[in-house]
Task: structure prediction
Amino acid sequence: MAGDRLEAIARACRVQILRMLAHAGSGHPGGSLSVIDILVTLFFGRLRHDPKRPDWPDRDRVVLSKGHAVPALYSVLATAGYFPEKSLITLRKLGSPLQGHPDRTALPGIEAATGSLGQGLSISLGLSLGLKLAGSSARVYCVLGDGEIQEGQVWEAAMSAPKLGQPDHALDNLVVILDYNKIQLDDFVKKILDLEPVIAKWQAFGWPVVEIDGHDVAQIAKALDQAEATRGTPTFVVAHTVKGKGVSFMENDPEWHGKAPKPAEAIAAIREVLGVSAGAWEDYLKTDSATRAIVDELAALEKK
Ligand SMILES: Cc1ncc(C[n+]2csc(CCOP(=O)(O)OP(=O)(O)O)c2C)c(N)n1
Ligand SMILES: [Mg+2]
Result:
């Protein structure tokens, strides 16, 4: 089953995200865990790409505009074979290509330097138009955060995209996915500056909108199919998600936007992601040597 495979990869990526952040001692768990099912479905269910040839001109592009969630992207790139998994624990270390925000000059597989929020959609418009003008069939996937779209530059790009390149080079190679987890840095998006009615706003600018559960890989894949079948306009996908998804003490809590778990918290979170009860954990670890190694490494870190 394709869905089971994607869910298994997403679980493994969640484990890696928690591991990386605990080793780094800083970073953004909430938005990494909310976006991971989207990134896994893109990279393992959709993208035309070749990890051995990251500069292949006709590759599909993923622009993670909400760049602070890059641990999710690193976990996916490592799993796909862009670089060794052991590099993941160099996250945020001095000299590592895995910086706290993505750097395309440092790490093959990264398409744009993001993290200064609000810019990724404008970059994606340029990439989409360039590919169209070059006669390439490559597609561009831009992932936005909901707090991020409180930035004005996003709306300038949103107004332009359905008109850019018309009529011969319309940007139907562009898909924008909103990770709508309802929380930004300070608090709930609604309390800071409500986005609603978000669907009607994008529709008013000329975007077809597809609304999905952003943790349901079948729904994500179907939305991407719909986008690919759409001619003449880019597509906007509103993915309803849960910030911190998969870890009970992180879910839906603004506190976990930009705070790394302590090693012991990461171990508890990994156990939850894998769906193992506290009582069954030691026996489980005897059957899973890869997780055992990650847990031992975190336990050693806790003692430091
Ligand atoms: C231009 C800019 N302003 C402020 C910040 C600081 N910042 C980092 S993450 C964040 C909140 C983003 O919220 P959202 O897009 O909803 O991200 P998610 O919930 O997916 O983590 C802010 C304000 C930034 N990175 N860039
Ligand atoms: Mg958010």
Observations:
- The chain has a mean pLDDT of 97.
- The first strand starts at residue 61 and ends at 64.
- The pocket of magnesium ion (ligand 2) is lined by residues 31, 145-147, 181, 183-184 (CB under 6 Å).
- DSSP finds eleven helices and five strands in the chain.
